[in-house]
């Protein structure tokens, strides 16, 4: 008999996981449950899930795999509710939450009842929310962290990896504490800082409305993540409070150092500060997904003349290659401009590169 999968919270991540599971396990029957019924119905209409259920309790007891894909405080609540149900003894329960310490602590209530809970966190995502943003390739090449409890059988961890193999992600086993410290540095603190930068710019735009007009590429790049779901981030910050408090202290020291550099006016030291940051940033793996490379980007040199963008997009459309984003990064007078094209997959990027090269465009994978 085909296996049943229940996804609680069919948003960006829950929906993307559902699509990835269908890819490798087409026989699995995927049921979605979401507090936002409209979102769940959308997932059903988009064939992300097979069925939208009004009761997670009714479905949980019949499921072989249960994935908690709601905000992290809701994950904790769902763990407690599931612990009250007569779940199938062989069922695997996992989550996709961005924090792991509190979730693993809470999961003891399930494990005490003999159920299997393996914490999970795919390290890829987006600032977008809801089933409408779900993508089956979202996690390709990303790291997918798993935090099994010490007494979890390795075979069951392999079974979960098999369920999730359609994500195309690289699985990494980690202790919850290490997970929360690392994600605090590379994800949680940066989200707080992005919101802080936006808040500062908002204050200035109240004084001078031209601030809004000039908020261009740099500001948008560094603050994209400030457009993420406030419900999700409110929960993450609460869950990872202790790591964040120490990281915020470190950040304040870093800003004091920057202030001293600026005050000193020492061009050499300021140069070195930027050069060091550039060196480390440039050394981060480009192809691996995760914090940096969220999409497959291709850079194209284009002449600064009317019609060039539509020429490029027409070439791609003729070959049925879909773009996820297009952006002009640089337009220097009478020389070249640079277009950044983003694709959903490596294959699309390569096809685009080949046909643009055939049309005499110079293309690059990195800028
Ligand atoms: N967005 C990212 O980049 C990202 C990446 C990795 C992990 N995560 C984690 O994945 C989880 C989901 O995030 P998302 O980005 O998919 O958010 P989302 O807002 O797109 O989806 C979350 C869904 O959960 C539903 N929900 C909320 N409370 C619920 C409840 N009690 N019962 C059932 N459904 C409920 C919401 O209605 C929503 O549809 C979060 O725990 C987040 O920390 C997010
Ligand atoms: O790309 C983004 O928009 C993300 O914020 C994704 C991101 C991240 O910080 O890298 C956000 C939260 C996660 O738990 C994992 C990934």
Automatic annotation (TrEMBL):
Per its UniProt record, what PROSITE patterns does this chain match?
A: ACT (PS51671), PDH_ADH (PS51176)
Top enzyme category: oxidoreductase
Q: ACT domain location, by residue?
A: 297-367
Q: Does the keyword Zinc apply?
A: no
Tell me which residues make up the Prephenate/arogenate dehydrogenase domain. Answer: 3-292
Instruction: Enumerate the Pfam families for this protein.
Output: ACT (PF01842), PDH_C (PF20463), PDH_N (PF02153)
Task: Report if keyword NAD is assigned.
Answer: yes
E.C. number(s) listed in UniProt = 1.3.1.12
Q: Which family does it belong to?
A: Belongs to the prephenate/arogenate dehydrogenase family.
- Put simply, this protein is called Prephenate dehydrogenase
Q: Which organism is it from?
A: Siminovitchia fordii
